[in-house]
Amino acid sequence: MRRLHTPDDLASIADTSLSGVILQRFTELAAYDDYTFDELAEFWLIEPGDTVEDLEAATQLRIVHDWFSDARYPDPDFSPAWEVLEAHATCYEMVFITNDAGYGIVLWIPQYGTDATLLAMCQRYATPAPPLVVTT
To answer: Domain of life of the organism in this record (predicted)?
Structure first.
C-alpha cells in the first residue's frame, strides 16, 4: 500500500480511471486553502499483495473487524465503521472520519488484485458513486 500525499504521487498509477478519481478528490480538498492536505486527510492506495492485516496496521483502522465487538466480516454481526463506501468504475473509495474536526482517511481499493476478503466486503456494501463533477 502506498500513502498518497500530493497529486504528483499519482504519476505512477497506470489506471487512469482510478487516478482521475483520486485527482478529483485532491482538487476538492485544495479548496480548503487554510489547511494543508495532511491536516485534512490521508489517502492510501491499496496495491496487489497488500493484506487486510497490513492495511489495518498501517492505517490504525478496524476495516474488516467490528469496532465494538469481535465480529469480523463476513460474520452476520459485523457492523462496518466507514462513513462512505462507493464503487467507481475500477475502484472502491472507502472513507473514515476519525475525529470531530472531520479528519478523514480514504482508502482507494482497486477492483482487481485486491485482498479477497476486502474485495468481497466492498462488493457487498458499496453503493454506486455519483458521477464526478470535475472542478478546477
So the answer is: Bacteria
Environment class of 7 (CB within 10 Å of its CB; exposed 0-12, middle 13-18, buried 19+): middle
pLDDT digits (tens, 9 = 90+) for 74-103: 999 999 999 999 999 999 999 999 988 889
Count the Cβ atoms, other than its own, within 10 Å of residue 129.
16
Q: Which helix (H) or strand (E) holds 120?
A: helix 116-125
**Distance (Å) of CA 104 to CA 37, 69, 86, 100:** 11, 23, 15, 10
Q: Which three cell numbers stand for residue 84?
A: 462512505
Cα separation, 74 vs 52, in Å, equals: 13
Kindly state the cell numbers that stand for 88.
Answer: 467507481
Domain boundaries, the chain: 2-128
pLDDT tens by residue, 26-59: 999 999 999 999 999 999 999 999 999 999 999 9
